[in-house]
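[step 3/7] inverse_fold.run input=structure_tokens len=313
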């Protein structure tokens, strides 16, 4: 009797069953530093915050790329920000949140544009030519920013607000009002060139926004040298206003150099770990450009080898 060729799904399932046990036996887990906050040190929702948006853990981990859940899915772009309660935390009047990294965020001259820290809210651009995406203005809700090395002595960051520009961009290849995620994620550890002041976005169409962001994911950029600090570990955001409710999505330590992530970092979270391995195995046998690390138009063994070479744990 002639055997029937294995289907791609069966092949992928068999590959996972064989690879995963062997992989985790061979590789000693390494806890790499996360580029995002890992701990909520203190949270006070304040008065008048958005009901239900009082989960401080929403500000941990990376910024949101796709919002709306299964009912209203949307790729996060400057025209449609993250908005679910599981994605952002709201600060009412007097509200404050203190977040901590698992490592020191340094004032690093090798960081792009000298920016060391990024803060992501859910600021967004208004559109003068919907659905094509032409920036008419930027809706910001403020939020005072303070940073600290030890969590006790705090330094105010002047002239910038937490829930402000540059609005988050989750994908390099998704339309301004896309419902589905793109295939090429932006880098949430790479800042937008700060010489392009947020007001400089006014009038730009979406292609020009993508060019301005240059692969970055947006966020409010902070240079620690501007306040004379060599390093920090803690960030505190406070709503000092009376007529706004700033939201916080995430904070990020900027990557040195050009901000480019490791090729094996498929989800652009600053780490190459089991999540990226899962994404590569899910794309096995396809031409998925995100997982096709060697560019040969098929996701297979050589791509797995490249991902493992970048492994951070």
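[step 3/7] decode complete -> sequence:
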């Amino acid at each position: 009797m002639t055997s029937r060729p294995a289907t791609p799904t069966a092949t992928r399932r068999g590959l996972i069953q064989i690879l995963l046990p062997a992989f985790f036996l061979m590789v000693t887990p390494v806890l790499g530093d996360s580029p995002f906050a890992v701990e909520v040190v203190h949270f006070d929702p304040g008065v008048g915050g958005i009901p239900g948006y009082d989960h401080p853990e929403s500000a941990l981990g990376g910024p949101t790329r796709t919002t709306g859940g299964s009912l209203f899915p949307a790729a996060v772009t400057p025209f449609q920000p993250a908005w679910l309660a599981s994605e952002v935390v709201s600060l009412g009047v007097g509200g404050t949140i203190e977040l901590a990294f698992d490592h020191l965020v340094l004032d690093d001259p090798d960081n792009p544009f000298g920016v060391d820290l990024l803060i992501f809210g859910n600021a967004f651009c208004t559109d003068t030519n919907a659905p094509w995406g032409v920036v008419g203005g930027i809706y910001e809700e403020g939020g005072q920013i303070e940073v600290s090395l030890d969590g006790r002595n705090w330094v105010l960051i002047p002239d910038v607000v937490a829930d402000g520009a540059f609005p988050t961009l989750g994908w390099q290849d998704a339309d301004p009002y896309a419902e589905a995620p793109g295939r090429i994620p932006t880098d949430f550890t790479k800042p937008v060139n700060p010489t392009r002041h947020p007001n400089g976005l006014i009038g730009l169409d979406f292609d020009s926004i993508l060019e301005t962001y240059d692969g970055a994911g947006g966020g409010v950029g902070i240079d620690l040298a501007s306040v004379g600090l060599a390093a920090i570990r803690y960030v505190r955001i406070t709503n000092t206003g009376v007529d706004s409710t700033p939201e916080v999505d995430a904070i990020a330590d900027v990557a040195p150099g050009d901000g480019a992530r490791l090729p094996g970092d498929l989800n652009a979270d600053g780490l190459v770990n089991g999540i990226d391995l899962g994404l590569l195995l899910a794309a096995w046998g396809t031409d998925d450009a995100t997982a096709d690390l060697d560019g040969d138009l098929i996701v297979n063994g050589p791509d797995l080898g490249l991902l493992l070479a970048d492994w951070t744990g």
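[step 4/7] annotate
Residues 104 and 156 are 18 Å apart (CA to CA).
The helical segments are 8-26, 206-213, 274-282, 301-309.
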